[in-house]
Amino acid sequence: MKVAYWPGCVSRGFTAELHGSMAAVAPMLNIELVELDRASCCGAGVIAEHSQELADTLNARTFALAQQEITQGADLMMNICSTCQGAQSECQQRLDASAEYRAQVNETLSDEGLEYQDGIINKNFLWVLVEDIGLDKLKTLVKQPLTDLRVGPFYGCYIVRPTDRLDINAAQPRDEYLGQVIEALGGTVIDYAGSHKCCGFPIITMNKEASLEQAGRHLGDAVDAEADCLVTPCPLCHLNLDLQQPMAAKQVGRELNMPVLHLPQLVGLALGVSPKELGLQHHIVKPTSVIDWSQAVVGGVGGW
Amino acid sequence: MAEFKLKIRRYDPETGAAPYWDEHTVELEPHRSVLEGILQARNENDGSIGVRCSCRSAICGSCGVRVNGKPGLACHTHLDDALASAGEDGVIEVEPMGNMPIIKDLIVDMDAVHWKKIQRVTPWLIGKEPVPEREYIVSRESMIDVTQSMACIQCGACVSDCLSMEVDPLFVGPAALAKTYRFVGDPRDAAHEQRLKDLGEDKHGIYDCTHCFKCIEACPKGVAPMNQIMRLRRIAGNDFHIKDRNNGERHEMAFVNNIEKNGILHEADLLPDSYGGKFHPRAVPELISSLPIVMTALLRRKMTPGKALLHPHKAPDGVKRIFEVVEGRDERNEFNLYISGTDADNEGTAEVAEAIEAAEPAGVAPDGTEGSSA
Ligand code: SF4
Ligand code: SF4
Ligand code: SF4
Ligand code: SF4
Ligand code: FES
Question: Phi and psi at residue A262, in whole multiples of 5°?
Answer without folding.
Answer: -75, 150
